[in-house]
Amino acid sequence: MNHQRRDTLKAGGGLGVLGLLAAAGMIKPEMANAAWNQTAFEAKNMDAAFAAFSAGKPAESADVVITAPDIAENGAVVPVGVVSKLPKTEQIVIMIEKNPNMVAATFNLPEGTVADVQTRVKMGQTSDVYAMVKADGKFYMAKKEVKVTLGGCGG
Amino acid sequence: MSMNRREFMQMLAVAAAGGMTLHSNFARAEKAAEALYDLPPFGNVSLLHMTDCHAQLLPIYFREPNVNLGVGSMRGNAPHIVGEGFLKHFGIKPGSLEAHAFTYLDFVEAARTYGKVGGFAHLATLVRKMKASRPGALLLDGGDTWQGSGTALWTNAQDMVDACKLLGVDVMTLHWESSYGADRVKEIEEKDFAGKIDIVAQNVKTTDFEDPVFKPYVIKNINGVPVAIVGQAFPYTPIANPRWQTPDWSFGIRDEEMQQAVDAARAEGAQVVVVLSHNGMDVDLKMASRVTGIDAIFGGHTHDGMPAPTVVENAGGKTLVTNAGSNGKFLGVMDFDVRNGKVADFRYKLLPVFSNLLPADPEMAAFIDRTRAPFLEKLTEKLAVTEGLLYRRGNFNGSWDQLIVDALIAEKDAEIAFSPGFRWGTSLLPGDTITMEHLLDQTAITYPWTTLTEMSGEMIKTVLEDVADNLFNPDPYYQQGGDMVRVGGLQYTCDPNAAMGKRIDNMMLKGKRIEPNKTYKVAGWAPVSEEAKDSGPAVWDVVANYLRSQKVITQRTLNLPTLKGMDGNPGVAI
Question: pTM for this structure?
Answer without folding.
Answer: 0.92
